[in-house]
Amino acid sequence: MPFAAITYDIKPGFEAELTEIFGNFRRVRSDKVRTETGEEAGRILATAVFLRDDTMVRVIEYQGDLDAVARHMASQPGVREVEASLKPYLSRPRDTDTVEGFVATFRRSLLNTVAQISVRDAPPAA
């Protein structure tokens, strides 16, 4: 299962506030990711957020099409609330008020995958 990681450029010194924002996160309505026509395009399996100094990283484990995952996230009330709550703490603004802006920001913030290893990818033990 692939992982994606997106970065946020933040103002340092707000660790408690950022932790509270994500601590109050409302989960997405469903882990199933659907296209605009309702077809299943993937699933969001897990997310995690990491923070140090002026960098925050959100890691997403998913199945399916990453673009569809980004579009799905853009429409979720909890994600929209977090993005709005983060605005005062960002050192570089993010255009996430619309689905198109969120997806474009997601793509720009995406880290390149260098390596990804999981026991789920290993062949069964003999």
From TrEMBL:
Pfam family, any one: SchA_CurD
Source organism superkingdom: Bacteria
Family matches, as InterPro entries: SchA_CurD-like
Residue ranges constituting the SchA/CurD-like domain according to the UniProt record: 1-119
Protein name: SchA/CurD-like domain-containing protein
